[in-house]
Design a protein that fits this description.
- The protein is α+β, with helices and mostly antiparallel strands and about 190 residues long.
- The chain has one domain: Endonuclease I-creI (Roll), CATH 3.10.28.
- It is built from 6 helices and 4 strands; from the N terminus they run αββαββαααα.
- It has a 4-stranded antiparallel sheet with strand order 1-2-4-3.
- Helix 3 runs antiparallel to helix 4.
- The longest helix is centred in the last third of the chain and has 22 residues.
């Protein structure tokens, strides 16, 4: 059975794309990383079965994904199908591309960020001057992170019909600036 149209409709209604910037502690100091994933969440046992069936269908198409149970409440259950591996995210985006009605532009920006991350590869890490000789590249790295933040902030603003999306630190670009200043004050 081909689930692609069904998956697109379900994702339009219950799915989300997430892009965030965070600090990660490493042996030689701190680095800044971008985390990215796609989720579909449902709250019933039938929803869980559906997500598990979709996960199997996606795995056949070599899209790594899993279904997890969120929450410890006996009154509320949330089951989530998650895709987070970069290559799997690209395949997932290609599968949904052209099928979405409400989140098509968000998908296009999400896929662009995924491809930028794929091209950058292992050169994604930023280190403090004390711990790594590549510190001289931090301005270039900051510009790369900022480019991703701008793309995502634009996509989110469009999705929210012109109202900027704000999290705890503001939008993604503002969050990046807070993290950067906190961990790399000498820049």
């Amino acid at each position: 059975m081909d689930y692609s149209s069904y998956l697109a409709g379900l994702f339009d209604g219950e799915g989300s794309f997430i892009v965030t910037v965070s600090l990660k502690k490493r042996r030689k100091g701190w680095s800044i990383v971008i985390y990215q994933w796609a989720d579909i969440g449902l709250t019933t046992e039938d929803g869980k079965k559906l997500l598990e069936e979709l996960a199997e269908w996606l795995r056949v198409r070599e899209i790594h994904c899993w279904v997890k149970h969120d929450g410890n409440s006996t009154n509320y259950k949330n089951y989530t199908l998650r895709v987070s591996n970069i290559l799997s995210l690209i395949k997932f985006c290609q599968l949904l591309n052209g099928e979405l009605r409400l989140k098509q532009r968000l998908l296009e920006n999400f896929e662009l960020i995924t491809r930028l991350r794929q091209e950058r590869g292992s050169g994604l890490w930023v280190w403090s001057k004390k711990h790594h000789p590549r510190y001289k590249d931090n301005q270039l790295a900051y510009e790369w992170f900022e480019q991703i933040a701008i793309i995502w902030d634009y996509a989110r603003e469009y999705e929210y019909r012109g109202r900027p999306w704000k999290g705890k630190y503001g939008d993604l670009r503002e969050k990046l600036q807070v993290i950067w200043r906190r961990k790399f004050p000498e820049d």
